[in-house]
Write a structure and sequence with these properties.
2 domains, mainly alpha, about 150 residues, DNA polymerase, domain 1
C-alpha cells in the first residue's frame, strides 16, 4: 500500500498487531479483528468517525466477563493509529465504558469469585435464616399494604 493512499482497517490492524509482542498480539487479535469486521476490512481508517467508534462501543455487551479487557484492546489499536499519524484525531477518546448499575464492592467481587464457608459460619447462617422465616409473612403483608396505598 503506498504512503499517499489511506490505510484500510485490515492493513492498519496487520501493522498494529505486528508491533505487539507475540503474547499481546494473540490476546488482542480477536477483539481488534471483530472491530474490523464490524466496519469492513476495506473501510478507510481515515473515514472512521468518532460517532462510529462510540456506536461500536455502545454495542459491546458489558455483561461479558472480559468486557474491559476487550475495550482496552480496541482503545490500544485506535491510540496506536493516532500515534502513527494514520488518523487526524484520537478516536480512542470516543470509546466510553458503560457505567454499571452500581459499584461492585470488594465483598461483591469476592462473592463473584466464590467463597468457602466454615461449619460455624454455615450454622450461623442457618440460625439467622430460621429467625427470619417467621417475620416473612409480616413483611409480605406490609409490602401488600404499602402497594395498596398507592
Amino acid at each position: 500500500m503506498s504512503d499517499n493512499q489511506p490505510l484500510n482497517l485490515a492493513e492498519a490492524t496487520r501493522r498494529f498487531l505486528a508491533s505487539l509482542s507475540p503474547e499481546e498480539a494473540k490476546a488482542g487479535q480477536p477483539e481488534v479483528q471483530r472491530f474490523v469486521r464490524w466496519y469492513g476490512r476495506e473501510h478507510s481508517l481515515t473515514g472512521l468517525t468518532g460517532h462510529e467508534v462510540a456506536n461500536y462501543a455502545a454495542r459491546m455487551p458489558s455483561s461479558d466477563t472480559d468486557y474491559l479487557k476487550k475495550f482496552e484492546q480496541i482503545r490500544a489499536f485506535l491510540t496506536y493509529s493516532k500515534k502513527q499519524g494514520w488518523t487526524k484525531t484520537n478516536l480512542a477518546a470516543h470509546l466510553k465504558v458503560k457505567k454499571g448499575k452500581g459499584k461492585t464492592t470488594a465483598v461483591g467481587r469476592q462473592m463473584a469469585q466464590g467463597m468457602s464457608l466454615t461449619q460455624q459460619g454455615y450454622d450461623d447462617v442457618k440460625t439467622e435464616l430460621a429467625s427470619l422465616e417467621p417475620k416473612r409473612a409480616q413483611a409480605i403483608e406490609e409490602v401488600r399494604l404499602a402497594a395498596a396505598d398507592k
